[in-house]
Specification:
By secondary structure, the protein is α/β, with parallel strands linked by helices. It contains 13 helices and 15 strands. The structure holds iron/sulfur cluster.
Length: 359
């Protein structure tokens, strides 16, 4: 079990529910855009939001952003330890530093002491692109695997912070390679009790990022490795939060409202499964009564697997010839037209939910 770290009201490690993270992609100095994006992320299910504090203008904007943010914020610090001190003054909830580029040990010590006084945790974030030069040379020469190099580097930096009496440490070791990332986290899992922030760095645009992160983070999470995560995506930030939520939901690690299963369709299909499935997801996410309801909803193309899957779900639709069979709690209710299908499914779910409440 990893040690428990508190980031304001959010717990990381110690077996706590795994929080989802993301990072702003607007300049922190732009207070209005930053707050707008933070709110969007919160709505998408993000628990912790990171933002860069890379210059004086960002540091100046930070107190207002911190005061108005609905979720705890994490300051991302590179190169300039003074930005870490300014972020702490602004009331930041957590720091992410890369000690390798903060400079000499005295500066790291100053940051650790200031964070310790305020009870602010620090994530040591080692990335494959920012290894120490001597370590990088060893990796390039093939004397050391990248994963092991990152894991050892992160652990050494954490031990250095501990020497300054600082213990609220989270570690991350992100590479663009899925296998090296997994190797790095496995090393840390075996060699320390620091909570681990999972991620694949520079994972690419949506489709690639989802596959890479699903493969790497999924492999780790299924082994019980990982205490918080970010799914990095080149694209809209809210997609990161949605993807993080879904990954945890699909692994059975965190409930997040209805899960829509739908078949891939085939030559038998005579109804628009993709369209209906999308409409069901959209309608559920907007429905105040159902969006947090933990259940499985099935949209199936035909009667081969359709009724079976639909019946196994809380409610479902199994396609026929230009119509659907509506199922609820394992029972076929009635035939519905494609136009009626989505509202009828939602109503069936509401009925089940209300019936459960009355029991
Ligand atoms: S449920 Fe029916 S339509 Fe969908 S993939 Fe299976 S056989 Fe094809």
């Amino acid at each position: 079990m990893t040690r428990l770290i508190k980031v304001k009201n959010i717990a990381i490690g110690g077996g706590a529910v795994i929080p989802v993270q993301s990072m702003l992609n607007v300049p922190t100095s732009d207070t209005v855009s930053s707050l707008r994006q933070i709110r969007k992320l919160e709505k998408a299910g993000c628990d912790l939001v990171r933002l860069t504090v890379n210059d004086a203008a960002a540091a100046k904007a930070l107190p207002e952003i911190v005061a108005k943010s609905p979720v705890p914020l994490i300051a991302d610090i590179h190169f300039d330890y003074r930005m870490a001190l300014a972020a702490l003054e602004a009331g930041i909830a957590k720091l992410r530093i890369n000690p390798g580029n903060i400079g000499d040990k005295k500066r790291v010590k100053l940051v650790a002491e200031a964070a310790g006084e305020k009870g602010v945790p620090i994530r040591i974030g080692v990335n494959s692109g920012s290894l120490r030069e001597d370590v990088r040379k060893k990796v390039l020469a093939g004397h050391l695997s990248l994963g092991l190099a990152m894991g050892r580097h992160a652990l050494a930096e954490a031990k250095a912070l501990e020497k300054y009496g600082f213990e609220d440490i989270v570690l991350s070791v992100k590479a663009t390679s899925v296998t090296e990332t997994v190797r790095a986290y496995e090393f840390l899992h075996e060699n320390c009790d620091f909570p681990l922030h999972l991620g694949i760095t520079e994972a690419g645009r949506l489709e690639d990022a989802l596959l890479k992160s699903g493969a790497g983070l999924g492999a780790l999470l299924l082994k019980g490795i990982g205490d918080t995560l970010r799914i990095s995506i080149t694209g809209p930030v809210e997609k990161e939060a949605e993807a993080g939520r879904k990954l945890l939901q699909f692994l059975g690690l965190r409930p997040y409202g209805p899960e829509v299963v739908s078949c891939p369709t085939c030559g038998r299909t005579k109804v628009e499964v993709e369209k209906i499935s999308r409409e069901v997801s959209r309608a559920l996410s907007k429905d105040p009564e159902l969006r947090d309801y933990q259940c499985k909803v099935a949209v199936m193309g035909c009667a081969v697997n359709g009724p079976g899957e639909a019946a196994a779900a809380e409610a479902g639709l199994a396609g026929g010839s230009d119509c659907f069979l509506l199922f609820a709690k394992g029972k076929a209710l009635r035939k519905v037209s494609p136009r009626e299908a989505v509202p009828a499914l939602l109503q069936a779910l509401r009925n089940i939910k209300n019936a459960k409440r009355l029991k």
